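#struct-queue
[09:14] JT: dropping the first one here, sequence first, then the structure tokens:
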Amino acid sequence: MARQVIYTFKGQTKTIPFSYDIHHDLYEAAAEAEGIDLKKFLAMEQQIALTSKKGAKAEKEFRKSEFARFGFTSIKFVREDDEI
């Protein structure tokens, strides 16, 4: 089964195909599907990764808060047992 990502953007739930050949992670795939440019976000995320301790929550919290600011409330992989 091909991977799929289900996400909610500004109150509307959508499902898109996902491939690691095209995207680094599911967040980037969802952002591309909505036409969001992540250049500045990725640069800042890289800076946080370089300055925070390995395994620290800083990167995860930054990603979570920024995607919420973009309008995403949920982003996850579709499991085989999930109903779309």
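[09:21] JT: and here's the second one, same format:
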Amino acid sequence: MTSNDRITISGTALAAPVISPDRIAEFPVRDDRSQREYLVRIPADDLRLFVTRDARLAVDGEAGWTVPGRSWRGESSRTILLARRVDQRELALAA
């Protein structure tokens, strides 16, 4: 039996979301603090912002299974993060 951990990460999207036929948006995010990669999944209708590669995001959800990386493609393993909320982080600029 697997238990999920509720976490919040702040990081950078590594790719734009891909929408599956069952309307689930999925995209990788690298956490700034731990440098771990997460595979964020959220219902496409709940993703209320435009996500592009290198977008700064805050993601709140439950982390569970780990998807092994494909070493021959240079991919690292990613933990699946079932998101409850995805917010865009704004960069504060000094005037």
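[09:30] RK: nice, looked through the second one.
[09:31] RK: The longest strand covers residues 56-67.
[09:31] JT: good to know. The radius of gyration is 13 Å.
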